[in-house]
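Thread: Newbie trying to understand structure tokens

Hi all, I'm a second-year student working on a class project, and my supervisor (Dr. K.) asked me to get a predicted structure for one chain before our next meeting. I've only ever worked with sequences, so writing a 3D structure as a token string is new to me. If someone could post the tokens and maybe explain what I'm looking at, I'd be very grateful. Here's the chain:
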Amino acid sequence: SAVAGILVSGKEVIMMRCVPALILLAGLCLTLFSSAVAAETTVRVLLTGGNGARLPQKDEGVERLAVSTGEVLFGGMQYFGKIEIWRGKNGLYVVNELPLEEYVKGVVSGEVGRSWDIEALKAQAVVSRTYVLMQKAYAVSAPVPYDVTSSVLHQVFKGGDVPEPIARAVEDTRGEILTFDGGPIVAYFHSTSGGITEDAAEVFGKSYPYLKPVETNSELSPYFLWQKKIALKDMEKASGVKGLKDIGIDSHTESGRVRTFSFVNGSGSTKIAAKTLRQNLGWDKLPSTFVTSIMRDNGAFIIEGRGYGHGVGMCQWSALQMARDGKTYRDILSYFYQGTVLQQYEDR
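---
Reply by user tm_fold:
Sure, no problem. This is what the structure looks like when written as tokens:
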């Protein structure tokens, strides 16, 4: 075992013998500051070290070790606001609570580039604000109370200084959200559509009238077209099919993405849902389910496709193209979320 500690204003206040704690605490330093935070809507963010970070489990006993208003250095980034440190049997968890608009700035910084056109930044700000308010409406069942994580499990939240264009985009749209039937919509978004977005029912199992396929231009994206080489052993592990001989496309969704693959071995053919295969392989290894061809190459498969992400809702790179074409953020939002209403959020 080893000893790990948290530094608050230069003083070690917590000592414990926990190897997982050392892993989670790498680069963590908490310091106090005295500025007051105004009473307003806040967001509780579980800071994670990456896409594969372990989340609190329902049966995991946890206790809150420390809480302070201050600054935390986590994963090489600075985060400000209320900081909570929780300990569970699997390690330590860090929750950052901060004002809604400051959170939105951090998300826009994490999701898109600072050099993007202002109207695309505004569109992202509205979508991200809407998304987190929708998430806050659902109680988190995990033992550590949080609204969202800081990773792509929800939307990427980045700490540190906010570039001026992003801060301006958030301030110019302060409080604006997309609504349907009077409440925040389920504001899914993704990186690159590959030419058309996807129906939410195909990915998330539930249909929404404002999340239907629309044609797009995402050719600015480096993932508009892609090719990946995936080892045979990785395909077998992801599919659970041993002795894999070939992979075929079994069915398509309305947008042209793959709904199911056929994995063929000596025993026959097994159907695998495309979204399941992508999740099992890893999002980077299979950028999207918009697969256009599959070729066997000795001990690997060469897969070609289009787009990056699940394909539902606003395509970020298409939004950038629309902004460059002179469209406003209102135009962008009304195109991707048809039938929704842009209005001011009212804290209840």
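A couple of things are worth pointing out once you decode it. Residues 209 and 339 are 8 Å apart (CA to CA). The radius of gyration is 22 Å. Feel free to ask follow-ups in this thread.
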